[in-house]
Amino acid sequence: MTHNEIAEYALDALKKAGADKAACSVSRGRKDEFNVEANKFTLMRTLFNDALHLKVIKDGRKGVLAVNKLDKDSINEAASGCVALTASAPPDEAEDIAEKRENKTFDQGAGGAGMDRLFARTKDFLEQVKDEFPKIILEGVVSDFNSSQTAFANTNGVRFDTKTEFYGLSAMFAAKDGEKSTSFNGSALRLSSLDSPFMDWGLQRAMFGESEKSLDPRMIDGKFTGQVIVTPACADMIWDTLIACFLSDRPLIEGTSRWKDSLGTKVADSKLTMRAAPLHPGIVGGERVTADGYESADTDFIRGGLLENFALSLYGSRKTGKPRAGNTAFSSIEVAAGDTSLADMIKGVKRGILLNRFSGARPGPSGDISGVAKNSFLIEDGEVTCALKETMVSFNIVDVLGRITAISSERNTSGYNILPWCCFDGITISGGG
What we know:
Layout: H1 3-16, E1 21-37, E2 40-58, E3 61-67, H2 72-85, E4 104-108, H3 115-132, E5 136-154, E6 159-177, E7 180-181, E8 185-191, H4 204-213, E9 223-230, H5 235-247, H6 249-253, E10 274-276, E11 299-303, E12 306-307, H7 314-320, E13 333-335, H8 342-347, E14 351-355, E15 357-359, E16 368-374, E17 377-380, E18 383-387, E19 391-396, E20 404-413, E21 418-430
Parallel strand pairs: 4-6, 9-14
Antiparallel strand pairs: 1-2, 1-5, 2-3, 5-6, 6-7, 6-8, 9-21, 10-11, 10-13, 11-12, 14-17, 15-16, 16-19, 17-18, 19-21, 20-21
Helix pairs in contact: 1-2
């Protein structure tokens, strides 16, 4: 059966099993990849990934189940099991499935796998790293071509069919010079074509260069309040955390989000515009159909400092009475460029940090957060000076949005996000002295 035929069969099986309402998603994926260890190709393999996700509502109770076998017997068993789960679920009037609007087919094909060229690009990447950054040790590199066909269907007549293809590169690396070495760092790219070398994409050169400069780190003495420039490599510190902790279903349903009553009000400096943008051409393999069965649309969360939308699913919207978001691709973040060059941004920092990686727990409802700055550098009198070690940063993630001093005119595109450099003031920075 094709993926579409499997979806129809599964939906029919759910109805026969007693579902009042039902939805299913069928995905058939393939990944062809090269593995490199210690600068040597060690493996070429093909991985297949079949998945069937089921949701049913019976007597106002929800059941969900996922399986990776797509034969008829397995589908029938999964459908019966999914409906059976509703018996032990609490009734919830907010549970529902997407209403039918316009059914569509989405084609994000890249012309099929070009494995010979992928091998050549990977080989060139290894050679460029060796030539340009001799102190970099590539612990592991994976380059791949990903393809999938996905069908979504529900009992309201919703039907979506999506084809997605893209290339990927991930690298784990550190710098080493004699007895000196740095901690490991990683990078990841998604590409729609192989027209340009991997080294020319994203922050590859910057990250390798900064890793080599980190071989002689210095500890800050004492504690001070300063500015932190958050680089695009540190997306999870601010942007992902804001969505997860203050804009999404759980904090809004539980009422813990500080922004629960803030739609239409100012929550950040007017320089900030932040959105989920899966349809942006710079986002590779972006979501076209939401997990709850709607056509995806780009969604502004903060525009000009004003909170315009929450990141709510259909369930979250019905549970809170607030508008549903246009997509569920909340890792496809775009932050609008500012009007300050990165060079001028750095010149404007009296004392602070260029932050490339942050290791810390997510904040509680108050927004307070602290953690360790990794792969980061001290800025003094407008110049990036030394690499840092054992440096703590502490701040309130909600309050700090009102203390944005600059956003860079440059932006980095990794295929996952489109982000500028952003400078925040009033952050506590402390070392070991």
